[in-house]
Amino acid sequence: MGGNLVQNYGEVVAMVLFGIGFTNLLLQKNMIKKIIGLNIMDTAVYLFLAEKGYITGHIAPIIKNGDFSPDTYINPVPSGLVLTGIVVSVSVTALMLSLTIRLYRRYHTLDLDEISTRLKKEGR
Amino acid sequence: MEMILNFPCLCILLTMFSAIISSALNRRWARYLNTFVVTLVGILSAAVLMFTLTSGKSYVYQMGHFPAPFGNEIRFGSLEAGMALFFSVIMLLSLNGGREKIRMEIDPGKEKLYYIMINLLLSSLLALVYTNDIFTAYVFVEINTISACGMIVITEHGRTIEAATRYMIMSLLGSGLFLIGICILYDMTGHLLMEYLYTSISNIMAAGTYRIPMMVAIALIVVGLAIKSALFPFHAWLPDAYGYSTVSSAAMLSSLVSKGYIFLLIKLIYRVIGFEVFFGSRIINVLFVFGLAGMIMGSVSAIRENDIRRMISYSSVAQIGYIYMGFGLGTGAGMVASAFHILSHGATKSLLFVAAVGLTDASGGHKEFDELTGAAYRNRLAGAAFLVGALSMVGIPLFSGFISKLLFAQAAVQSQGKALAALVVLAMSTVLNAIYFMKTVIRIYTPTDKKYEVTAFGYKVSYAITLGCFILLNLLLGLFSQPITNWITQGLTILQ
What we know:
The complex is a heterodimer of chains A (124) and B (496).
Chain A: H1 2-7, H2 9-27, H3 31-53, H4 76-107, H5 112-122
Helix pairs in contact in A: 2-3, 3-4
Chain B: H1 7-22, H2 27-55, E1 59-63, E2 72-76, H3 78-97, H4 99-105, H5 111-130, H6 134-153, H7 158-189, H8 194-207, H9 211-228, H10 238-244, H11 247-273, H12 275-280, H13 283-304, H14 308-328, H15 332-362, H16 375-378, H17 380-394, H18 400-414, H19 419-444, H20 461-479, H21 481-495
Antiparallel strand pairs in B: 1-2
Helix pairs in contact in B: 1-2, 1-5, 2-3, 2-5, 3-5, 3-11, 3-15, 3-20, 5-6, 5-11, 6-7, 6-11, 7-9, 7-10, 8-11, 9-11, 10-11, 10-14, 11-15, 13-14, 13-19, 14-15, 14-19, 15-17, 15-18, 15-20, 15-21, 17-19, 17-20, 18-19, 18-20
């Protein structure tokens, strides 16, 4: 059990980071901290994919010297998934930040709960 | 007939490109283009539906140059085509019904952006319905989320921005879980295409060595999608988002966006996880319990609400609970009932939202119940439409809601050990539904002497036609339920 954890330390770190990011996104009150949590969570997934996709001693799949042996190269798909995921998380982060700016201009606070209580008090 | 096989891919590309082209048009042409594209998608999907119904088979369409285990694919059978048709019909009707409101509530400079969002929403829904690759599904889930957020936030209102932020946070939690689940699944199987995943998963489950990690991955995916579709404890954003956004957005969010995720889940259950594996796991018990809790709590919250739009929104929470309760029953009949409820709830909830806006506009724009007294006399058509929607939600025969309740009850009787709980909660939920919907109906049909400023909105021809179509759709689903359930059953069978 312990040996497996040490051997697969990359995956363990990825899962711990995912947990940290997830709880931050869920529980932080400050919007910026929430967004940081979102980014930690997404990055943890990319770390997991990169860790799983890389095989020690293999190189990126660009064919050299006519070598077609699968033992030379790594699978390109996990790297492709990481790139796609990065694009998605960048756009989502941008959207969240723009929403945060809107909220801050209107209510002069980054605390989402405070905004909610104020909205309820206004009653509209 | 070869030509028809291109239609699903064509629909996705068409909607996506029309979103891009709309950014270069003015608002009127963006509106025309949007209406044209949604109608065209409906027609093309109807053609695909006819084709797949007559052949009774499913088709795989290769995207790009790489063949099966590596490339990307689209796959469609009769169920997928029917869902695409249903989504485009509901979208067209919701947009038409709320057209005046869109003009009134959205800044003219931003109306174009609204139609871009609608086009993107339709393209992502179509992709979720048709795709055969789970990572593509993830990407389109995110596109769906982003466009839905845009649709909420387009009416510049403190409440909608707050609701959109909450919606984004919940959705991102859900998609984070979905993404990590997909990645774990990919690491264990080495596949992203659904049928290869299915074979690998059934091999792994048969071998029994990696049972627990596999169950964890499946649970992450299912919980992620459940969070995104606002299953009971994750619904905090929903009443504000549905209650304060423009009416077309509310109708589409409740009857399309959350249903897109649920349909994806149905697809994953049949095509990736496998019917036996999923129903043999304990995940369905969790879904069952949360579904039952949602059915009760959603209705209780709706009873306490004093705002008609927010009341309808809370009713959505209860209806999503019904669908997950159907998943939790663990029988094929439960899945058929859930799939039928996607249609029934989609048709009824958008009708209720569009009818409610006619009633509130006839009452000087007030949404509180005190002001709505006698609103059905001030706008007779909207009143009648609301009555139809309310009767359908309560489950009166003739209307679609009755059929879905009947199917759920039948499925509950067939299930093992869950029959009693499901039937009791179904009955309680029906009574609670009746309390708040009948309260509203009685309220709007109580005559009053109070005079309100009559807005011309309710008397537009397009609004009347939309409501007529919605009522017709509801009756259609209620009266011709047998062919529809046959179609769903056949579609679910060839999904595997």
